[in-house]
Amino acid sequence: MAIRALVWGENVHERRNRVVAQVYPHGMHQTIADALNTDSAIRAETATLDQPGHGITPQRLAQTDVLLWWGHAAHGDVSDAVTDMVCNAVWSGMGAIFLHSAHFSKPFKRLMGAPCNLTWREAGERERLWLTTRNHPIAAGLPDHFELENEEMYGEPFGVPEPLETVFVSWFQGGEVFRSGLTWRRGAGNVFYFRPGHETYPTYHDATVQTVLRNAVKWAHNPAPRLADPGAAPNVPVAKAPEPITERGPRLHHDGAPGLR
Ligand code: ZN
Fold first, then answer.
1. Is-above-0.85 flag for pTM?
2. Once rounded to an integer, what is the mean pLDDT over residues 16-45?
3. CA 20 to 30 Å from 172, out of 35, 41, 53, 231?
4. For the purposes of burial, counting CB atoms within 10 Å of the CB of 17, is it exposed (0-12), middle (13-18) or buried (19 or more)?
5. Distance, CA 125 to ligand 1 centroid (Å)?
6. What domains are there in the chain, each with its CATH number?
7. Considering only CA atoms, which of 3, 70, 65, 58 is closest in space to residue 30?
8. Across residues 10-31, what is the average pLDDT?
């Protein structure tokens, strides 16, 4: 069965800004979904902010193997309920890929538990992305480095927790560098952040970027069954300990108590 990807797009600047509308006439989310769907191993759909519930329900996330998220102008309009749903799905085993300015999206900040801040400059600079390792699945089929002629600059320090792996580092014409491809595991879910994708530039039409996105979907896919309750914290009574023990000392909780949160 194909990997089920859901591309979530804010779809705000595509409708309000003439330059962005020309680069992405059907929305960035559609360009990304079309790129994923060129691979028969992936079946991508889209959802956008303006749809009821932002196009996201627990049922839809249950049928999503990997969620891709692009947002910029309207992070604050994403409801806390949808943020909770997305984070719970990731903790349960859904893969998540956060693109470019999604570093400040509510789900990414919640999953990272950090400011996720960076330095930036919008000057159409050349970005050169370097692989840090040749055998990472997200870098499959890529040259040692590739360039995007026009991109927004994101610079270090990037306020995220130390990643599991750094797949790409970027150099910008103005001299800054940035860790532009990072992985984490959150609960049972695989998380990838990929930096390029400023909306005034044709980044998601780039063939190498599209390869990275398809590779990342395959990497983030966790085929194991979703955890029913990723936040469960069950009490293990004395009698159920793996090795026999004798209870000692005073206690606050009775056997099987739900515990304090
Ligand atoms: Zn941007």
1. yes
2. 97
3. 35
4. middle
5. 12
6. 3-220 (3.40.50.880)
7. 70
8. 96
**Ion ligand 1 residue ranges (Cβ < 5 Å):** 101, 152, 198
Element (H, E) at 146: strand 145-155
| Residues 37-44, mean pLDDT to the nearest whole number | 98
Ligand 1 mean position to 221 CA, how many Å? Answer: 26
Q: Can you give the pLDDT at residue 258?
A: 85
pLDDT digits (tens, 9 = 90+) for 121-166: 999 999 999 999 889 999 999 999 999 999 999 999 999 999 999 9
Angle between helices 28-37 and 207-220 (to 10 degrees): 70
CA 80 to ligand 1 centroid distance, Å: 23
Give distance in angstroms: CA of 168 to centre of ligand 1: 18
Q: What percent of the chain has pLDDT over 90?
A: 95
192 Cβ neighbours under 8 A, 6+ residues apart: 95, 96, 97, 98, 138, 167, 181, 182, 183, 216, 219, 220
How far is ligand 1, taken at its centre, from the CA of residue 151, in Å? 8
CA pair distance 55, 59, nearest whole angstrom: 11
